[in-house]
Structure formats: structure tokens, C-alpha cells
Amino acid sequence: MISFANRDGFIWFNGSYKKWTDSNIHILNHGLHYASCVFEGIRVYETKIFKLDEHIHRLFKSAAILDLKIPYSIDEIISKTVELVDKEKITNGYIRPVVWRGSEKMAISAIKASTNIAIAAWTWPSYFSPDLIDKGIKLTVSKWKRPSPESAPTDSKAAGLYMICSLSKHEAEKDGFDDALMMDYRNYIAEATGANIFFVKDKKLYTPRPDCFLNGITRQSVIKIAKDNKIQVIEDHFNLDFLKDCEEVFLTGTAVEITPVASIDNYNFRVGETTKFLIENFKKLVIL
Fold this sequence. Notes:
The protein is α+β, with helices and mostly antiparallel strands. The protein folds into two domains: 10-123, Aminotransferase class 4, branched-chain amino acid transferase, N-terminal domain (D-amino Acid Aminotransferase, Chain A, domain 1, 2-Layer Sandwich), CATH 3.30.470; 130-286, D-amino Acid Aminotransferase, Chain A, domain 2 (Alpha-Beta Barrel). It is built from seven helices and 16 strands. The protein has helices at 30-34, 52-65, 74-87, 130-135, 163-174, 217-228, 273-286; strands at 10-13, 16-19, 37-39, 42-45, 48-49, 93-101, 115-123, 137-146, 179-184, 189-192, 196-201, 204-208, 233-236, 248-253, 257-264, 267-268. Strand 1 and strand 2 form a beta hairpin.
């Protein structure tokens, strides 16, 4: 495994290109100590950047929610992202824009500190191995829950919100699972650690209502594919026992794309026709 601190290439960093290994920040930055940091994850398919505009708009929305004022326009960041992918010769890969508050003040209140932005891109084929995707992944229910919108900025892609995701996934992997299912603060099904979740029952598509977690861009794309093909989509709140009659389950996200789920603890599912149909149509969408 190549460390992300020691790679070839360049990162766009506060307005200029720096060598990957020189793209460093001070240990006493506010983003590290107080989680004043937001980011995006974007995929490149056959040199085409999927939903770039939507991702960068969401980056700016997340930054605004955390009171981070990005010193560039949306159009400038879109342009630099395209330029970076071309410069790094990325055919199939991943892009990570990240925004954080700087080192000018080390305290809870640091509203006058600088806002920094960097964009990195690298070759990256798939989140899960192809054989694992073919048979479906195994999930377990996490003890950690998605917080309420009154206790965290749940409509942002803020770095701090992912702490419980890492804890949940680490615990799941230690127990022999691939990922974890997270409930929300009301004990409704929310999502996996870094992906939205869908269920198939009687040829209908069900998915949790995103009122305390991100309405993912891949999630929105899958819903559109389904509706365009006359598949009924139902967004609602679901208790855990909703799983007992589900025939198919899959995850959606920039990293996982569409990944079938074989089991959630003692609930078992098949990789069925609806999931396969949506995977095939999503593949067509990303290279248009």
C-alpha cells in the first residue's frame, strides 16, 4: 500500500500546484483540532468527471454551513478540478477537494482565521473488490447512531461527522463484516458508514428519508434512474424489522457506486434483478 503522504504528482493547493510530497500544513491548524473542515469525493470515469458541478456546489454549501469562506468562486474550483485531472492524467480515479480553517488562532473561536483549499486526484478503480461486489457485502448494525440536525450540521459533508463512521467500520471489520449499518437518533435505519442504502421489496425501491444525513449525489442519480424506468421509489422512515421482508439491499455512494448487500447481521438478501438493472444503467450514466 502506497502512503497518501508519499506519492508522485501534484496537488492544487491554495491557488498553485505543489508537489504531492510538499503539500503539507502545520500541525496546529484549526481543521485538525476543532474539525472545521469539509470535503467532497468525486469519481472520474474514462476521463469524465461525474456530477462535478453538483459536487462543487455541495462543497461550497458545506463550507458555508461551517462558516468557512472559500476564497475562490465555484467556477474557478470547477475549472481547477478539470485542469488537475488532465494534468495528473487520470482516466479512472477519485478526486478529493478539501477545505479547512488555518493556524492563525488555536481556540474554539477562530472566525478570522484563513480558509484554505486543496484538490487532490489519483487513480482508483473500485472501493470493494469485484468478487465481493458480485456476491454482496456483509453488514452489521453499529452501536453508533446518526445525530439529530439540532446537534450536528448533518446537511454538510463535514469531516467531524465521519468520526463515528470510522469507529463503526473499524468495529465491523474486526468482527468479520465489510461495513456497518447506522441507525439514526430516533432508531430508524439511516445509512452505511459512507454510503446511502436502498431496499427492494415487491419490485418497489425503498430508501430512508435523508433528514439527518446527506442526500447523496449517487443516491439522487439512482432514484432518477429508477423513476425513469417506472420503478416506484418510496422514501420513508424504517425500523430495523423492515429488513425481514426485503429481497434485495444495496448501497450507493461516490466510493461504493452501487454495491449489493448480501446480509445485515441475521437478515439475508440476494443480488437480484432490480439491483443488477440499476448497476447496468448507472454504468451507462457515468460515462455519458
